Amino acid sequence: MPNRYAYLGPEGTFTEAALRALAPDAPADELLPCSGVDAVFAAVRGGAADSGVVPLENSVEGGVSATIAELVNGDPLLITAEVAVPVEFTLFAREHVALADVKRVATHPHALAQCRGWLARHLADAETHTVSSTAAAAQAVAEPGSPYDAAIAARIAGERYGLVPLAENVGDRADAATRFIRLARPGALPAPTGADRTSLVAFLSDDHPGALVELLNQFAVRGVNLTRLESRPTGDGLGRYCFCLDADGHVADARVGEALMGLRRICKDVRFLGSYPRADADTELTPFMPTRGTTNADFHEAAQWLERIRAGGVA
User: Fold this and answer.
1) Which of 125, 146, 158, 172 has the smallest set of CB atoms within 10 Å of its CB?
2) What's the whole-model pTM score?
3) Boundary residue ending a domain (106, 137, 168)
């Protein structure tokens, strides 16, 4: 049976583009557009979908709060894949609407933040309104009697809802991109590829000087590179935070596994979010140069040495 995919809808979102990049052969009748990020998580947790695709972070605006909140607080799901999608925005309107006629613009909050400069230069007097997605903005503008004159959205959304482009490339950063993740219920992990990422959430046991340094040292002393570190309130009171981390490597790698065991010893709790292939595996990165004693072979040799000692052998 084909997989059923839930994604942040409606049709025409950047999330749909990400889903099609992750599952290009998925039939259209197996795609389930959802009204919000929380609805995507609920569809996967409840079994209405086998997988879900949601945005995790943007290169300009940072982490997507709704996604991070679900990863931290909801019933556990695993990240099984990721993809980075270039973000290019177009200003769309109904037929016969000119740029000078635009008084009310609808879009997603992250899109609005990335287009403020263009709007200030070209539509300084226009009101801006935020909706659940850029595709929802295009859909709203296309409806008869819409209160909005134009939408900032992806090209796929404007075309899908029969709108006309008024201006292209209205984003303030030409190199903007959003990272999307594919979610599944807990099960078998993707096999290591040699170019992987491990995601987790660490909850500190208590607040004391050097607590964050202790957490980071679990990775540093084992030669594990961190690619994302983001704090988030736990909800238990002011000043209480957990930390969302992405690390290079797979939990099957000895150094990553030992780093996670180290975290488990010093933290109140550690939520493992998955090990999966990196989206940038095909790009040229600065090669990782392990320090002495931090290769997988070093960890395995040390473990065998300890086994010999415990068995009463000669080290």
Assistant:
1) 125
2) 0.83
3) 168
